[in-house]
Amino acid sequence: MDMPTPSLQILSRKARIVERLLEVLPADAVVHDPNEVRAYECDALSAYRCPPLAAVLPRDTAEVAAVLRVCFEERVPVVPRGAGTSLAGGALPTADSVILGVARMNGVLEVDYPNRFIRVQSGRTNLSVTGAVESDGFFYAPDPSSQLACAIAGNIAMNSGGAHCLKYGVTTNNLLGVTMVLMDGTVVEIGGPWMDAGGLDLLGVVCGSEGQLGVVTEATLRILPKPEGALPVLIGFNESEVAGACVSDIIKAGVLPVAIEFMDGPCIKACEAFAKAGYPDCEALLIVEVEGSEAEIRHQLGLITEIARRHNPVEIREAADEAQAKRIWLGRKSAFGAMGQINDYMCLDGTIPVSSLPHVLRRIGELSRDYGLDVANVFHAGDGNMHPLILYNANLPGDQEKCEALGADILRLCVEVGGCLTGEHGVGIEKRDLMEVQYGAADLEAQVRVKDVFDPRWLLNPAKVFPLHVTAGRRAG
Q1: Which CATH number fits domain 108-225: 3.10.105.10, 3.40.50.1820, 3.40.50.300, 3.30.465.10?
Q2: Chain-centre distance of CA 105, in angstroms?
Q3: Where is the FAD-binding PCMH-type domain positioned along the sequence (predicted)?
Q4: Looking at residues 210-239, what average pLDDT do you find?
Q5: In 25-147, which residue ranges form alpha helices assigned H by DSSP?
Q6: What is the CATH number of domain 8-104?
Q7: What are phi and psi of 341, to 5 degrees?
C-alpha cells in the first residue's frame, strides 16, 4: 500500500513540535518516546504499521483546539484516532504525523429523556452510551460488532451501523449534532438536539467523512425507549445461495425485522466453538430478530417462518430464553475474533442490493476458488452489507498480496451489481485505490473540493479516502 514520503523537514523539527505540544497539554498527554509511540502505529488493519512522530491525548474540546492550532502553525499532519478499531486503516499514521487520540474524552455531558437525546464526549465507547441510559429504559441503536471497544468518534467518522441497522438505521440516522474542531483550531457547532435546522446539512457531510474535515469532540445522539420484547430465531440452510434468496424474499414481503444476520459454515463452526450459542449444524445460518409486544412478535415470526419454509430450511429454532438469546448474539458479535483464532484474514464490507445476494454469494465462491483462498461470510443480510473474511497466511510470501487482489475483485463485484465499496468500515487506505471504480473524475473532484474548504492545507488524516494521484497537488502543506 503506497503512502506519501514523510517530510524530512517535519521530522527534523520533532523536538520543537513536541515542545510546543507540551506547552498546551500536560506531560502525560504527549507521547513522543520512539518505543511508546508504537502503541499507535496501526489500527485493527494491523497488516500496515507506521510509528507516528508523536501522539497526544487531550481531555476536552479546548485541548483539542490548542493541539490543532499548534499543528496548523507548524504544518504538521494530524491523524484523529478513536479507539483504534478501524478495519480499513482509517487511523494509520504517517511518520511525520501526530496521532490525536480521543480516548480520554469519554464523559456524559447531558441526558434529556423527554427529548430523547444524550450528549457525550466523542471518546466514549458505543456500548457505554446505552450503559448510561438503559437503567431508565432507553438505548442507543447503532451496534457495531466492536461496540464494546469502538468510540463514538470513530462511529461518526465511518458512519458505522451494526446488526440492528435494518430497523434503526446507521450512525447518520441517530446523530443529531456535533462539536467539531477544524484544523486551524476553530470550534464549530453543527446540528443540535432538534429535528431540523436551517442552512446546509453539514452534519450529513461530517458523518462518514473519516477524519478528513475536522476532529469531532462531542456528539448529541438520539436515544430510544427499549422495546417491550425481542426474540431471535435461527434458520439453517444447506446452501448459502438459498439462505440469500430467503433474505431477499423476507424483505420483498415487506416484513421488517430488527435484524437479519447471515453466517456460512466456517463462521458457524468458529462462532459455536467460541460462544456455545446452540447454532445448528448447517452450511448457512440466518439470525432473524423481531421485537415488540408478544402479539407483534408472534405475528412477525409467523410471516418469517412461512417465507423460510418455502426455501426448505434444515431447521427453524427460536431462542428458548433470554440467556440463549444473549448467547446467539454473543456468537455473532464474536465472529471476527473467533475467525481470527483460526487464520489471518482481511474483512471487507461492500454493500449490495438485497436481491443480488444469491448471485454475489455464488460469485464470491467462484472467486475464492480462482484465487485458492478460502472466504468465510458473515454479514448484515437485511441491508446487504457484506462482510466476506478472506483467510490467508501472513507468513507466506505473496499470500497477503493475493488476498488484497481477491478483496479488490469482490468489491468490484459489489459495485457492478449496483452496490458500493463500503457500508460501514469506511474507505481508509484499504479501499482508497478503488474509489475510481465507484466514482468518476468529476465526482471525486467535488469531494476533494469539500475537503479544500474545511482543511485547505490538507493536514488532516493524510493518504486516506482519495487516491494519491488525485490529491498529489494538494497534500500536506
Answers
A1: 3.30.465.10
A2: 20
A3: 48-226
A4: 97
A5: 61-74, 126-133
A6: 3.30.43.10
A7: -75, -15
